[in-house]
Protein: Sperm-associated antigen 16 protein
Amino acid sequence: VSADDEISLHEDDEDLSKALQTVQEQTENAHILALQSVLTSKKSVSETPQAMDDFFCNFLVRLGMSRTLDCFQTEWYELIERGVLTVEAAGLVPDVYTRNQQLEAENLSLKKDLENYKHSVNKKEEALLKMQRERDFHRMHHNRVVQEKNRLISDMKRLKAHYASYEPVLKQLSEKYQHSLTQKMLTTLERDKAMGQ
Structure:
């Protein structure tokens, strides 16, 4: 144990077993730190190359070829067990294939998003057309009401003009009526006077 070590032994603990335990703890701590640096490295898990058998299995599962998958796994593990083939000899899937799968998955996701957007746009277009039809209906109704109002106003003006043309005649007739009424009264008074005499 070095003298400048962080975890130094106390002076009363100068036992060999304690010293070995301390050294073992230090190596375990160093190993844990090394694993943490590997886990927190910039390369993500998805960027690590995929094993060839995993690639084929995932491909067959994605296509729904379960019987072919069973046959492939049976033959693959049989060859590995016989020693004809090793996992290292099969190698890893080139990054291009993995990248193509990622791009294909992204493409499918974008197509699904596009379909969702098209669906929402179609709904919005239908709502817009419905609102435009309602607007046109209300506009037509409003125009009809305005036309009826204008027609009624013109009818009222015509009737007022017509009534205004009858007003002098009515005035003249009421004057004649008043005059004839006074004549009648005068005649009845003269007749009563004549009768009285």
User: Anything to note?
Assistant: Residues 95-196 form the longest helix (102 residues). The radius of gyration is 55 Å. Residues 48-93 form one domain. Helices lie at 16-39, 52-63, 66-82, 87-90, 95-196.
